[in-house]
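Hi all, long-time lurker, first post. I run a small reading group and we've been trying to get comfortable going from sequence to structure in the token notation. Rather than ask abstract questions, I figured I'd post a concrete chain and ask someone more experienced to write out its structure so we can walk through it together at our next meeting. Sequence below, copied exactly:
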Amino acid sequence: MITALGQSVRQRVTDFLYMIGYLGKLITASFFFAKRGKTARKILTMQLLFTYVEALPICCFLAAGIGTSIFMIGNTFLTAFGQGTLKYNLLVLLIMRELGPILLAFIVTARSATAIATEISTMVIRHEIEAYIAVGIDPISHIAAPRFLGVTFSLFFLNIYFSLFGLLCPVLIIQLISTTSITDYIRNLFLALDLKIIVISILKSIVFGMIISGSATLYGFNVGRASTEIPMAGLRAVSKAFLYIIIADVFITVLSYTL
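-- Answer (accepted) --
Happy to help. Here is the structure in token form:
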């Protein structure tokens, strides 16, 4: 039992370190993406279309609903304790720093990680990756890097729109339940904003995007020869992405509160 536990821990540590090294390879390949051909740029464009453009309406709708709910809860409970102005701090903290980035990461993981892993694993099964290698094309630079950049940029832009809709949509509700003017709302909102919160929000969106695309492409490449492994690649990519996202979120959050 102890031996099996040790082997399991060792394997998980090995997988984690391999993931870190693979992300390093992806980042290095991304720096030279501008030198890639028209096909690679088309892959990037299509990835942005699927991950960013098509997911934008549902993300904005969720942001508006969640932001309004948070403001209503804060307005009800905090005002009762004479701390009504803290509802703006609560709104900014949850939408920009804590809830927004990780919620978007889960949405993008559910939509894009499975699709990317399935697509790449299908290419492996059909020996298309071997064909790329045979003609001297690096699959990571040509196939993985555009998707890596596409998902990372998509999560970054989605996070911006989520923050805007989550912070600004409650201003419509306060006109019905409060005497606070739009000008006072915007002023209090800007007073609650902090550069540290903005930086952490951006950092989380970029790191989560790297994790999602890295997991999806890695487990897409790591399939065998059987077609039955294609859905398993998608499941592994999603589960590992969720795990690494939670670990990264905890690490960044703890680090930000201790510094």
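A couple of things your group might point at:
The chain is about 85% helix and 0% strand.
The mean pLDDT is 86.
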